[in-house]
Amino acid sequence: MQVRTYRNLVDGVWQEAAGGQTMEIFCPCDGELVSRVPASGQVDVDRAVAAARRAFEEENWAFNPRLRSQCLSAWGAAMRANLEELATRLALETGKPINEARFELNSSIGYVEYYAAAARTLYGTSTAVEPGLLSVLAREPVGVVAVITPWNYPVTLLMRDMAPALAAGCTCVLKPAAQTTGCTLAVLELLDQIPAFPKGVVNAVSGRGGTAGQALAEHPEVDMISLTGGLETGQAIMRTAADTMKKVSLELGGKSPNIIFADADLDKALPFALKAIFTNAGQLCTVGSRLVLEESLVDTFLPRLKEEAEKLRPGYCMEESTTLGPVISQTQLDTILEYMEEGKACSQLITGGYRLTEGGLDKGFYLAPTIFLNPPMDARVVQEEIFGPVLVVQTFKTKEEALAIANGTAYGLASAVWSRDIDKAMWVARRLRAGSAWVNCYNKLLPECETGGYKQSGMDRAGGAEGMLKYTEVKHLCVDFGI
């Protein structure tokens, strides 16, 4: 395995951190060294922000939608041409199976392609207020955007958040997650293949959240912060951003309910329920971590789900047969094991609940797919985001009870309902307090459609038209042409 070394991107120049310090990234599958990246600080952030500000004010970008569309299209094409190499780097840094890494890259390209087209459709409105007076509401880019991305889906969430910012005419400074900086910077290296991309429009600084990320949040020349991450991080960003009145877009945690009624198409629901929680070892903000199951299905559907969960094949990320990867780190593994012990103490353990160590898995951070049945509603495994392969099954008798269970946490990112009775399904879906409510499917995350959180799952939306409009300001232009 080749160890790759990456550098920061500032004003079109790849460079080491000002202090010369680096960080190392290890594969969660076996602990092998994968990448070396800069450990940036305040000086590096200042340089990157200055470059983004210069590009915003001086380059032919903010008011040239055709150029923006052209550059984003070319970037998407370059990603597609290098998909296998990018997927390999992504798999090695995250530990996710190579097939899941390929899926993530294709999803990422979908966002770039969508916003490449959307860049040319940033419409405003006009109103003839009175004779000789015309009011125009124009959409203009917000300015310099700091994009702070997480480690679980580093490339998809990079492009979901940064592509619309660029499409809107903003310039960006990226701060990737420390655990997955290399594969994120590998995507940015493709910009060198696109001569039309103005220097300084995209910049990147690698470093710890408490240093580089904090410096971006505090920087007076950053106009907006776009963050996908945990609740505590989002709260800290909001507090810091208030000092300089930055715009903030936050997608935070989730504890998403997946409601299955007895009259659902259970053969269709089963693989969705499995993937909703165990894809990427449960490390997904919209993961269906609570299966809200009609009581009569406990003796029929639940055994089938248990059987399928136990068929998942843990292994090295680059093996095509692997269907279950490790969690990202020792810290994450230890946290999840604590939740597992609490779940065992307050509910019925259906399967799993332990670390996987046989067959060389002890070198990585592997956990058995775990299912708990009916812990109390106030249990931590019900109320808190675990971010691992842990499913809580909660049973109900009526649709009203199902709805109460589903809405009974502080989160509201995603949800789903399964039933052949479309009236019942829609009655529930419209009342779910979540930014996404899927009916007879799960995790249909589409570039054309908005996602985002209610309650403590965040603010603002990503994807779709709203995902681009949030990176704009509305300017009122009033033209008096009366005689």
3D architecture notes:
- This protein folds into two domains: 4-252 and 458-477, Aldehyde Dehydrogenase, Chain A, domain 1 (3-Layer(aba) Sandwich), CATH 3.40.605.10; 257-447, Aldehyde Dehydrogenase, Chain A, domain 2 (3-Layer(aba) Sandwich).
- The strands form six sheets. It has a seven-stranded mixed sheet, sandwiched between helices. It has a six-stranded mixed sheet with strand order 10-9-8-11-12-22, with helices on both faces. A three-stranded mixed sheet has the order 1-5-4, covered by helices on one side.
- With 483 residues, it is of the alpha/beta class.
- The chain has helices at 42-58, 65-81, 83-94, 98-118, 154-167, 181-189, 209-218, 231-242, 266-278, 301-311, 330-346, 380-383, 399-406, 422-431, 464-469; strands spanning 4-5, 8-10, 13-15, 22-26, 33-38, 125-130, 133-141, 144-148, 171-175, 202-204, 224-228, 247-251, 257-260, 290-294, 348-351, 370-373, 390-396, 411-412, 416-418, 438-439, 454-455, 458-459, 472-480.
- It has 15 helices and 23 strands.
- The model has no long low-confidence stretch (mean pLDDT 97).
- α3 (83-94) packs antiparallel against α6.
- β16 (370-373), α12 (380-383) and β17 form a beta-alpha-beta unit.
